[in-house]
Design the sequence.
């Protein structure tokens, strides 16, 4: 029934399974413009509500910018750590949660809340679908990067208003993600937070319900 | 630099490029539980903030439920059509925008806004990242379905409160997507909305900026 061979199917499932949120292990190898563009093009192939293509990619290599964003991470990470008690706090502080300065490229992905394309189709009752289209683009980029041998890490421990000011992002764009991108010395077998004992994978069955919602 | 062969890389890029939002062309062929579970497992392999795994999948086969959701689509679609003028309205009414009754399976994907897993990591300054994790799961499912020869269509022209009531979704879960899933007689070469002349693909360069935001 499929126009994908077994080898091709397996490759897609392997990319999905072997993708990691990479925070450490970034290495210095330069990322070529061609490779970067293939990854961005994969994002640009995402589905979008009304074909509105609301994603906007800001490529950041400037040290000044990365240091400003990293400073926001340090502040917000300290606030987050302070909210945990005792052993959990110690465990939190030991986690490596970003590669802003060590990854050669940062990408801020923003979503136009009133995209000029698409004539508003599909956004009347659920306008948030524009942002969701942008997230679909990010997942495409994550998988494309993985098969290119590049890691992506998504940093959410940031004050979005600092990011907005630093990158001159206008009010009609929502800051969806701040990504760190670069070659890596290796992809971990398990998610970092699982390795560190922070949280475990849930069994698939626990998140599947039939015909109506079922509590987890 | 990559542990994916050229054939494997090409397969992932092809899945990304050949994925379509499928609204028509669903066929009657039954979807096996094994296939459905592989697609859901691909979703469950998505990244999630703090390893919170906030996605919940509700599998719907009931005709009664699908008819109730379809009725909401018909109402909201008529309202949407009424908001366009003249030629654009005629063009809108000619579009095929859902396969709720023709696809053998519908999947409502909801996101727990206060997920019990992950200990809140990464959600202090940007709590919306839980929903974004759920959207990453959807894009994984979309790609997995594509290589299995199954189409997915995302219906956003719905009143989410009707969906909530019909599927008994509690207030702490956000309705992220209502998907139609099934085998299809074929995948269109271009997005339906492009084929229909509703909207065109933008050039990649127009959505890429360097070092700071650039208007499209």
Sequence:
């Amino acid at each position: 029934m499929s126009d994908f061979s077994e080898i091709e199917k397996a490759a897609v499932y392997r990319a999905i399974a072997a993708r990691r949120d990479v925070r450490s292990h970034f290495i210095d190898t330069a990322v070529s413009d061609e490779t970067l563009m293939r990854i961005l093009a994969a994002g640009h192939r995402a589905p979008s509500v009304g074909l509105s293509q609301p994603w906007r990619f800001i490529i950041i290599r400037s040290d000044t910018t990365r240091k400003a964003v990293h400073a926001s991470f340090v502040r917000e990470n300290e606030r987050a750590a302070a909210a945990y008690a005792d052993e959990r706090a110690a465990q939190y502080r030991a986690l490596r949660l970003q590669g802003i300065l060590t990854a050669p490229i940062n990408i801020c992905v923003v979503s136009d809340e009133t995209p000029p394309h698409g004539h508003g189709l599909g956004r009347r009752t659920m306008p948030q679908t524009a942002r969701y289209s942008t997230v679909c683009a990010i997942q495409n980029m994550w998988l494309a990067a993985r098969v290119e041998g590049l890691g992506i890490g998504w940093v959410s421990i940031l004050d979005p208003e600092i990011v907005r000011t630093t990158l001159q992002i206008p009010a009609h764009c929502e800051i969806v993600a701040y990504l760190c991108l670069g070659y890596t010395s290796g992809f971990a077998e398990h998610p970092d937070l699982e390795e560190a004992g922070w949280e475990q994978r849930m069994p698939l069955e626990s998140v599947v319900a039939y015909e109506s919602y079922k509590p987890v």
Notes: Chain B has one domain: 20-197. The domain at 20-197 of chain B is CATH 3.40.109.10 (NADH Oxidase).
